[in-house]
Amino acid sequence: MIGKFQQSNLRIEVEGSAIALRKSLLYPERMGKWLWPISFSSGVPSKFSVGTTYSSWTGPIEIKHRVEVASDNCLRLLLSEGIDGYHEWYWGDGWVQSRLEGISLLPLSLGQTFSLLRLRQFLTTIDEQKN
Questions:
Q1: Torsion of CA 65, 74, 69, 33, to 10 degrees
Q2: Is 30 a member of any domain?
């Protein structure tokens, strides 16, 4: 893999319950609403589970994902192609933490920061009682 080794750990406060965060991180259809401009491959299941594989694109760059952990408060993805590494998400009531590590030409910490801010914004716009 060509690129630079990068790692980033971010934790932010959000206006959302652990349930709202779980739905926003473990359900690809919902994740696609806030993770723009990233798009997913077709055939992604309705909910991530251990062993699920899929691809996403950031512009023309494909990133392959394999779900290693999918639980009530954790999602861990092994990454390859555009990023060789992993991305972990942990969450609870009012907070979310993201840990990203890998080799890539992409500016990982910038993308990670942008994603967390989009998630925070998304959580303020949903009515978690109905979604």
A1: -30
A2: yes
